[in-house]
Amino acid sequence: MKESKGLWFPDKDKFMVSQYAQGYTQLGTLEKALTYVTNFRTAIDGGAFIGLFSLEMAKQFDVVLAFEPGSITRECLRKNTDNTRNIFIYDRALGEKFERASQDQDDRWEGNTGGRYLVPGNDFEVIPLDCLGLNNIDFIKLDIEGYELFALRGAQKTIERCKPVIVCEEKPRIYERQGVMKGQIGNFLSSLGYKQVSKIKGDIIYCP
Questions:
Q1: What Gene3D superfamilies does the database record attribute to this sequence (predicted)?
Q2: How many CB atoms lie within 10 A of CB 180?
Q3: Which listed residue, of 133, 167, 199, 207, carries a Cα 20 to 30 Å from 29's Cα?
Q4: Domains of the chain, first to last
Q5: Distance between CA atoms of 52 and 63, rounded to whole angstroms?
Q6: pLDDT digits (tens, 9 = 90+) for 70-100
């Protein structure tokens, strides 16, 4: 691990640590999304990476559930959030069904440890959020490199029950790699009574 401005990053990371050092954090998306939230009980951070979003969410919510399957990034996540008592870390990925998976790296982004994506494998467990039976979810953030649609499908009952504000990263070059087509996420959430309320670069905010 290596430290930059108070946060720990994987040793191999070049892109994200450089972005953070330059002040580019994407936290503006979170700030905008939270203006739509009315209750601040439990938040889901899907693709928590090193914990930048989780730490900010923990300032607002009673509980933050941070999902990060990558062992190296999760080690940084634990170190960065060690003194934050309302963040609970899951060493699993979120998906549509129970399965096993691994992560791969796009060769074009070798130094971006935040850009690792799910592939068939046996390194960690993928679970549907619905299996946790949560009843007080007020916010869901998903930045899981093209797997957002599958995580949403696996959280359908939770979404219908809790009506959380949802933020998804939606970048064609990323989700198409997982066989997802343009508009599928929006169409799925629309079927659950959601509408798009804001778009900030590659992130879209949905509200019921």
A1: Vaccinia Virus protein VP39
A2: 18
A3: 133
A4: 2-26+40-164 (3.40.50)
A5: 15
A6: 999 999 999 999 999 999 999 999 999 999 9
Each residue's pLDDT tens digit, 170-200: 887 787 888 888 899 999 999 999 999 999 9
Rounded to whole angstroms, the Cα distance separating 96 from 85 reads 29
CB 5 within 8 A of CB 20: yes
Cβ atoms of 118 and 88 closer than 8 Å: no
Q: How far apart are CA 55 and CA 64, in angstroms?
A: 9
- 117/54 Cα distance (integer angstroms): 20
- Cα separation of 98 and 124, whole Å? 11
CA neighbor of 177 nearest in space, from 202, 145, 144, 143:
145
